[in-house]
Design goal:
Keywords: Membrane, Transmembrane, Transmembrane helix. InterPro entries: DUF7074, DUF7075. The protein has 17 helices and 16 strands. By secondary structure, the protein is of the alpha/beta class. The chain folds into three domains: about 160 residues, no CATH class; about 120 residues, no CATH class; about 160 residues, 3-Layer(aba) Sandwich (Rossmann fold). Strands 1, 2, 3, 4 and 5 form a five-stranded antiparallel sheet that branches. Helix 6 links the parallel strand 6 and strand 7. Helix 3 packs antiparallel against helix 4 and helix 11 crosses helix 16. It is globular, with a radius of gyration of 32 Å.
Length: about 575
């Protein structure tokens, strides 16, 4: 009986094990099937259509700043440098330091000893008389400036001091670089100093006037010529002769024929917001770099109505109003569109053998497929309906792993940056800044329920007082249209708004004259996008920076439930 019972129990155990095994295998197969379906059907979101439009993950990961996604602020390459910049050969890498000053001072003392001269002979007996050509005057200015501004700017070189308005005054000019700007662009200041004498008849600065006060040291303005030409030409120098935004030429027919070009025709990005323009433009420029080709670019922009008081799109804006064309020419191989088309037509008219052209009618033809193309011109045409005709679509998907957007190639216009330096200099580089986002976001209570009340005049006073010392210079970068909105802050701080500096783009300003020359003698409006550019850069130069969505309100910067 025992022998009969044993075999009867064995099949039950084996069947139970098989049942469990089959059940586990079924669960495994079902799970794999689900993941397979998800992998096939999932479409990654378009980065431009997301709430943080279009400045790449690098931009949003670099700093916690509301400027990254808000239309009231925008960043360019000099704000977040993605590649190291080497100083030009003609530019000192470290600037004028205490060590440099001491060496110059020692050299001057040796020369004075050899010449048997002393400061006494320069008029030390008369405390109201200063010899501005004395090298020790410049040494005193260099040491004074270094002590006062060394945390903010790098001094590059000085001009020989000249006489001021009074016998004890000298006007001095110098070039400098801002430490918070990651470019090597140079700016100029000139100030008036009042001198006295210290021990051993050494020069001492009794008083230093403010930004651009040393008018006698300012270089003379070059006369500007009104131009009737329709084609924009670079302006003769008014103040900043370091700007070179002339249009490069291809030269001879042979040079044109030897070149390899990537040409994007106008697409759906035209007249869209400037962030989308930049996202798409850098896609095209990045593809040209990937293909080792010269990028054909249109200098004529359409400014979205969101940046214009009229609310209407405005065509015919020059790229050089907003961006540093000289730096772009140095960082990438580019040719201006009208120059390119003229040379192309000229070649085809004068030669039987036409230029080899490959036309691409869809963004789905990837840069990788064009890598080995031998055509002289690759012409991408964007004639499909939106959003298929956006330039940035070329860089989506697999192409994003190969084409890198060259953010380092785009800097803000040097003319706009001169205004930034003027505003910062008038505050002696010693100011704090607050960014106040209002506008459409303050009105949209569904997505930003607390923003309006959190940035009300009373709320601003209460919150900013906790972060900024009383009676400090306070620059307010904002898209709030009402100038008097911040009046309550004036009872606690020295408040500065962009509109306080309207003369910097007024009819007598350098900016006005230079942009008018670019525009064929016609005046250029200081539009909303230019205001955004200047506001951005002045804000970044503040010692204490107060952000809207990190310091002033509990709302999420992209709207409710997006923190």
């Amino acid at each position: 009986m025992k022998e009969a019972a044993t075999p009867s129990t064995e099949p039950i155990g084996q069947n139970l094990i098989k049942l469990i095994s089959n059940l586990c295998f079924s669960v495994f197969v079902f799970t794999v099937l689900i993941f397979t379906v998800i992998a096939i059907t999932y479409q990654p979101p378009d980065p431009w259509l997301e709430s943080a439009p279009a400045l790449t993950k690098f931009f949003t990961q670099s700093e916690n700043a509301t400027f990254q996604i808000d239309n009231s602020i925008f960043k360019t390459g000099e704000d977040i440098q993605t590649v190291s910049i080497s100083a030009p050969a003609a530019l000192p890498s470290t600037g004028i330091t205490e060590e440099v000053i001491e060496k110059s001072e020692a050299k001057i003392e040796i020369e004075n000893e050899n010449a048997s001269t002393t400061l006494q002979s320069s008029g030390c007996e008369d405390s109201n008389l200063v010899n501005c050509s004395d090298p020790m005057v410049l040494i005193a200015v260099e040491r004074f400036n270094l002590k006062r501004f060394k945390t903010n700017i790098v001094f590059l070189d000085y001009q020989t001091p000249v006489n001021g308005s009074n016998p004890d005054e000298c006007d001095v000019s110098w070039r400098f670089r801002n430490k918070k700007e990651k470019s090597w662009r140079k700016y100029r200041d000139f100030r008036r100093f009042k001198f006295g004498y210290g021990d051993n008849c050494t020069y001492e600065i009794v008083h230093a006037n403010g930004w651009h006060s040393g008018l006698n040291a300012r270089r003379p303005r070059a006369a500007t010529r009104p131009s009737g030409r329709t084609r924009p030409r670079v302006a003769p120098p008014v103040r900043d002769d370091e700007i070179n935004d002339t249009i490069p030429t291809l030269g001879s027919d042979l040079n044109f024929r030897k070149g390899k070009y990537l040409y994007y025709s106008r697409g759906g990005d035209y007249c869209k917001g400037m962030n989308q323009y930049m996202w798409s433009f850098l896609c095209g420029l990045g593809e040209a770099m990937y293909l080792n080709r010269t990028f054909v670019m249109d200098l004529s922009l359409c400014l979205s109505g969101s940046y214009n008081p009229s609310g209407k799109d405005e065509e015919g804006k020059d790229f050089r109003y907003y961006f540093d064309f000289e730096h772009l020419k140095e960082a990438a191989s580019i040719v201006e569109e009208s120059e390119f088309l003229r040379d192309w037509k000229k070649w085809d008219r004068s030669h039987k053998r036409k230029i080899p052209v490959r036309k691409i009618v869809t963004h789905k033809t990837t840069p990788m497929q064009l890598k080995k193309d031998k055509s002289s011109i690759i012409w991408r045409q964007f004639d499909s309906p939106e959003p298929e005709n956006y330039w940035y679509r070329v860089c989506e998907g697999e192409a994003s792993k190969h084409v890198q957007r060259p953010w380092h190639a785009i800097w803000k216009s040097k003319r706009l940056m001169n205004i930034v330096s003027d505003i910062s200099g008038r505050m002696d580089w010693d100011f704090d800044a607050v960014h106040v986002v209002r506008g459409e976001k303050a009105v949209n209570k569904e997505r930003w329920p607390h923003l309006d009340s959190d940035t009300s005049p009373d709320a601003l006073v209460e919150k900013v007082q906790k972060m900024v010392q009383p009676w400090r210079n306070l620059y307010v970068a904002t898209n709030e249209p009402f100038y008097n909105y911040f009046d309550k802050l004036r009872s606690h701080f020295k408040v500065h708004l962009l509109d306080d500096y309207k003369e910097m783009w007024g009819e007598t300003s350098d900016w006005f004259n230079e942009t008018r020359e670019l525009n064929g003698g016609r005046a250029v409006e200081f539009d909303g996008y230019m205001r955004v550019a200047v506001d951005t850069e002045v804000f970044y130069r503040g010692k204490t920076r107060v952000e809207t969505f990190y310091n002033l309100t509990s709302d999420c910067k992209d709207g409710i439930n997006t923190c």
